[in-house]
Amino acid sequence: MQCGISTACFYPQETADALALLCDSGIGVTEVFLNTFHELGPEYVDRIRGILSAAETRVIALHPFSSMLETFFFASEYRNRLEDGLALYRRFFEICRALEIPLMVFHGDYLQTKFPFERHCENYLLLRKTAREYGVELCQENVVRCKCGRPEYIRRMREYTGDDVSFVLDVKQMRRADIPLEDMLKAMSGRIAHLHLSDGAPGNDCVTPGKGDFPFGTLFRALKAERFEGKMMIELYRGGFSTLAELREAAARMERLYAEGGAEPPVSLGKENPA
User: Quick check: is 186 in a domain?
Assistant: First the structure.
């Protein structure tokens, strides 16, 4: 099991420069967080491809800067917004295909909107089907400001889509929504494709993994029990760590802990019926 580091950790450092830093450090896997429309252009994608071609680092997931627009595009009664959203996201999927990135992260509808649940699920399924045309798996992340941050929404989404959904489990977002780990794991069980790791400590709910009190052992034993085959990714804000070396040490620590957890009696949290 590999644990990588997201380029998002180094924002506002430019995406390509952050990626080059990680590649030069020998990190095995990463997630690329594109930060603006400029980075969708062919020249910039070629720049990223050049950085990756000279390294052994693999990009596991793409995180779009347009997450805050997903309500605007995909939870709107205005048809032209959906068409524009699909066009924009096709460009993200094209980039994934060009850079051989298998996953893309999706946030979805904000908590406060009244857009019908069923309609939003249909739009998610349309977007997921479109992603598959490019060999990409669209993954729903639990986000505190979005409806998907609640286990009950995730269960309903699984039921409505016939389990045609994959999840990014972000432990920072889970903490901020005050959701117990066991509840979120049960809701997502069997459909987790990607992990965003961080830790929480008094005064800072997003610090380097291992520097807080998050129960990574419980998380890893549960994932081992259900044969999780995704990747782990450290995703912090720039104020949550000091140096790249600190992140690399944390990634190695997470890999060791995951391996050690596999030798312990498995903790099965069970799978809730999504209904």
Answer: yes
On whether residue 232 sits in a domain, the answer given is yes
What are the Cα distances from residue 70, in Å, to 73, 231, 255?
Answer: 5, 25, 33
Give the number of other CB atoms < 10 A from CB of residue 112. 8
Number of domain units in the chain: 1
Give the pair of three-digit tokens for residue 187: 């809701």
Helical pair 151-161 and 181-188, crossing angle rounded to 10 deg? 0
Cα(231)–Cα(166) distance, rounded to whole angstroms? 13
**Residue 152 belongs to a domain:** yes
Place of tokens 């286990």: 151
Instruction: Kindly report the backbone phi and psi dihedral angles of residue 201, in degrees, each rounded to the nearest multiple of 5, phi listed first.
Output: -140, 160
List, for residues 63-92, the tens digit of each pLDDT value: 999 999 999 999 999 999 999 999 999 999
Range of the domain at 101: 3-262
CA 207 to chain centre: 17
> What do you get for the CA distance between the two ends of the chain, in Å?
31
CB 253 within 8 A of CB 24: no
Residue 273 lies in a domain: no
Per-residue pLDDT tens over the stretch 155-194: 999 999 999 999 999 999 999 999 999 999 999 999 999 9
CATH number of residue 257's parent domain = 3.20.20.150
